[in-house]
Design goal:
The complex is a heterodimer of chains A (557) and B (254).
Chain A: H1 31-35, H2 40-68, H3 79-98, H4 101-114, H5 123-145, H6 159-162, H7 168-195, H8 208-240, H9 253-287, H10 294-308, H11 323-351, H12 360-383, H13 385-391, H14 395-425, H15 431-458, H16 472-502, H17 542-551
Helix pairs in contact in A: 2-3, 2-4, 2-5, 2-16, 3-5, 4-7, 4-8, 4-9, 4-14, 5-7, 7-8, 8-9, 8-10, 9-10, 9-11, 9-12, 9-14, 10-11, 11-12, 12-14, 12-15, 14-15, 15-16
Chain B: H1 10-22, H2 36-71, H3 73-81, H4 85-110, H5 114-144, H6 156-159, H7 173-177, H8 179-212, H9 222-247
Helix pairs in contact in B: 2-3, 2-8, 2-9, 3-8, 4-5, 4-9, 5-8, 8-9
């Protein structure tokens, strides 16, 4: 592509933009038209509202955890209550926020439009998956209201099966049901991407967002059923008292670990891959350049999905797996760093000599690049056997996965929400306020989690509500950071809600981006396209975009 | 700005539209698919993917079974001897027959023979219910022998087989306890399989009702085809369960 030689630096005049008369938002009215909709865009909005709700519940637990850890003494809550706090925080954040975050909202909204289809292949299944999400969510909330769960989000046996009288079965049922919601989303995406692409939309013309969601969908479809059967076994063991995981009856707790992590390690790639897709779109758009090494980035998503299935035992290095399998899993774990690094380097080369502008999504994307790199590199530390034995079950682990999940995925999610907000709602958010939020989030995040690396390295174990007094300074820093972070997350909630009514009208393509979704009206029509688009250009072809006005055939929308 | 993407190949576009209009549009054609062919392919592909998730779901159970069979081989062999091969074999034959009628049902739908389709769906259902009936007999026998895992589980048949007229080597008490793991996995695996059968039979009632209304007699056969895939998958799971649970290595050394 020769897009490097030609760049667009001026955004179009938004003063003349108007909201379209008819769009998916006002096509039908009334609550029921939303609750029984088959429209992928409306389901995406339903998901967005739902996951935001659960995000703030999970966030409240995070706040309580940090509040307890402000002082070395266990003064705010009893140890049991603290255990429930971090368990509910983990279960809600992972299963009800991170796993569905980008795929179920942005993916649902965008994948059909990006490939030129009118909807996902199975609209009713898509709606069903949202209802399953809520049924699972209600089970989880029920477990919370009835008194909570204190197994940690990992449901570790035999702790979860024999030694606790909290609501493990209720929460496990919730996660089981949410799992099927995730399976159906993944299944829908795979079929849609295989069968619904518009004429001319070849695999290597698809935006990288579709590739990364496709890879994540494969993980959802293959991994989640294993989690489902594992949770069934845990529930049966608790209810009926059989001993598949119970060592006193000949069962093997390590089998639980194998089955659980066979899903839950790929699950971290389910969480991060769609975020990586968002970053590809954002960085290309605000550098006015085709993503460097498109094919390599596309295949690195697939490679991450593939390798992701063969590294699960690195969660079990200290649990008595054999030395040989530990060696193999350590090596495979480090191999995952290769495709991840391919992505980071390719994004860096995309930036090189690009016409970079610093809109809010781009700020979040820069945050992602730095924080995900730190999170990924510390992952390599943890993959090394000697380091892992020192660092596992300490705050180093906590800091590591929060860098990847919050610093990486949540940054990517917010980048995506800001990037496609004009498309989803037809309105702009206040630019300076949103930049402030992006910077606040970045500062707050680092203040929260950088001290936790040091705490973990010094040996502070995770999952305790008290700690030796010499760790207090770093813990106070972390809690202070969490406060800033909380402000950083509240801000978008407020100004995005404000923008729904008062935001400037965005126009069809406020960022001058190349994806098909930017070539239709904002917000889109229910059927997305008046007529099926015919794709004759590569993804991220800014030259094509520049000449588009001269070529286009106008139809009434 | 407009809603159209650059159409630089008007010719291809027109032929695509022309091709689309050659087909007779069925009432079941959904608007977001370009062609009925695309709709049918998408549905079949989705079904195959769903079956893949089912394989992973059962895979966890098979993995646990094979692991524990290796660990507690003696206990698994004597517990396996408690299962009735005639009943298991009869059930295998019944299930294959049911799958055969399902395959005939798909054929009947494809050649648009409504009466035959209904007949074959009913036969599929009858044999499916027969399978569940025999399974219930087997479960009941386990109940009488106290071989259902849990508080009432009784290992005396395995520690003292002569007293029950069994020609087995007695197991040491700790190994005899491991028979419970066999029976738990037996119930989990066959129970999960039976659960899929029950769901399938429910769907069969619904499909039979729709077939009687003539919904699948005008060229729209996707639900029948895809249910056929599901039903055959459930058969195949049993074809793995039967040898693993009933047949392999029943009397080592004899």
């Amino acid at each position: 592509m020769s897009a490097t030689s030609y760049t667009i630096v001026n955004l179009p005049d938004q003063r003349t933009a108007t909201l379209p008369k008819r769009s998916y938002l006002n096509n039908e009215d009334g609550l029921l038209s939303w609750l029984f909709t088959g429209d992928h865009k409306r389901i995406a909005i339903l998901y967005l509202i739902s996951i935001t709700f659960f995000f703030f519940i999970g966030g409240a637990f995070a706040g309580l955890i940090r509040l307890e850890l402000l002082t070395p003494q266990p003064d705010l809550v009893a140890s049991d209550t603290y255990n429930k706090f971090f368990s509910m925080h983990g279960i809600i954040m992972i299963f009800l926020f991170l796993v569905p975050s980008v795929p179920a909202t942005l993916g649902n909204f965008l994948i059909p439009i990006m490939i030129g289809a009118k909807d996902l292949a199975f609209p009713k299944v898509n709606l069903l998956s949202w209802y399953l999400y809520w049924i699972g969510g209600l089970f989880t909330l029920a477990a919370l209201v009835l008194g909570g769960v204190d197994t940690g989000w990992t449901f570790t046996t035999p702790l979860s099966t024999h030694y606790l009288n909290t609501h493990v079965v209720t929460a496990a049922t919730g996660v089981f049901i949410i799992g099927f919601s995730s399976i159906f989303t993944g299944l829908n995406f795979i079929v849609t991407i295989h069968r619904m692409r518009a004429p001319g939309m070849t695999w290597f013309r698809m935006p990288l967002f579709c590739w990364s969601n496709y890879a994540a969908s494969v993980l959802m479809v293959l991994g989640t059923p294993v989690l489902a059967i594992t949770l069934v076994l845990v529930a049966l063991e608790r209810l009926v008292g059989i001993g598949v995981f119970d060592p006193t009856k000949g069962g093997d707790p390590l089998l639980f670990q194998h089955l659980f992590w066979f899903y839950s390690h790929p699950a971290v790639y389910i969480m991060i891959l769609p975020g990586m897709g968002v970053i590809s779109e954002v960085i290309s758009t605000f550098s006015r350049k085709r993503v460097f090494g498109y094919t390599a980035v596309a295949f690195s998503s697939v490679a991450i999905a593939l390798f992701g299935f063969f590294v699960w035992a690195h969660h079990m290095f200290i649990m008595g797996v054999s030395n040989y399998s530990a060696l193999v899993f350590s090596l495979l774990t480090m191999l995952v760093a290769v495709p991840s690094a391919i992505k980071i380097f390719n994004w860096a080369f995309t930036l090189q000599k690009g016409s970079i502008t610093f809109e809010t999504p781009m700020l979040y994307a820069f945050g992602f690049l730095g924080l995900f790199t730190i999170g990924g590199m510390t992952g390599v530390f943890l993959g090394a056997l000697g380091m892992d034995i020192h660092l596992t079950e300490t705050y180093f682990i906590v800091a590591h996965f929060h860098f990847v999940m919050v610093g990486g995925m949540l940054m990517a999610f917010l980048a995506g929400i800001h990037f496609w907000w004009p498309k989803m709602t037809g309105r702009m958010y206040p630019e300076s306020l949103s930049k402030l939020a992006a910077v606040t989030t970045f500062i707050g995040f680092n203040l929260t989690f950088l001290p936790q690396f040091i705490l973990g390295y010094l040996g502070m174990p995770r999952r305790y509500h008290a700690y030796p007094p010499e760790f207090q300074v770093l813990n106070v820093l972390s809690t202070a950071g969490a406060t800033v972070l909380g402000v950083g997350y509240m801000l978008p909630l407020l100004y995005l809600a404000w923008s729904l009514k008062y935001g400037a009208i965005a126009g069809n393509n406020p960022w001058q981006a190349t994806g098909l979704e930017w070539q239709i009206q904002s917000p889109p029509l229910t059927e997305n396209f008046i007529e099926t688009p015919i794709v004759d250009h590569e993804a991220y072809d800014y030259e094509w975009l520049a000449h588009k006005t001269a070529q286009e055939v106008t139809t009434v929308g | 700005m407009d809603n159209a993407i650059v159409a630089t190949h008007p010719h291809t576009h027109e032929t695509a539209i022309a091709a689309e209009h050659e087909h007779v549009v069925l009432p079941q054609h959904r608007h977001h698919f370009e062609t009925q062919e695309q709709q049918r392919e998408a549905a079949t592909f989705g079904m195959w993917l769903f079956l893949l998730t089912e394989i992973m779901f059962f895979g966890g159970l098979f993995f646990a079974y094979l692991l524990y069979r290796n660990w507690y081989h003696d206990a698994f062999v004597v517990s396996s001897n408690q299962l009735s091969i005639p009943l298991g074999a009869a059930n295998t034959a019944i299930l294959i027959t049911s799958g055969f009628f399902m395959a005939l049902g798909v054929w009947a739908a494809e050649v648009k023979k409504q009466g035959l389709l209904v007949l074959f769906l009913v036969l599929t259902t009858v044999f499916g219910v027969a399978f569940l009936g025999i399974k219930a007999v087997e479960y009941h026998e386990k109940w009488e022998k106290h071989h259902i895992p849990g508080a009432s589980f009784d290992v005396s048949q395995f520690t003292n087989p002569q007293a029950y007229g069994l020609h087995e080597k007695p197991l040491a008490p700790d190994m005899a306890q491991k028979t419970q793991i066999f029976f738990f996995l037996y119930f989990a695996m066959t129970g999960m399989h039976a659960f899929h059968m029950v769901l399938g039979i429910g769907l069969l009632f619904w499909l039979t009702w729709r077939a009687r209304r003539g919904e699948f007699s005008a060229g729209y056969v996707a639900p029948i085809e895809n249910f056929g895939l599901y039903w055959h998958f459930v058969d195949i799971v049993w074809l793995f369960l039967f040898p693993l649970l009933y047949l392999i290595n029943r009397h080592p050394g004899s």
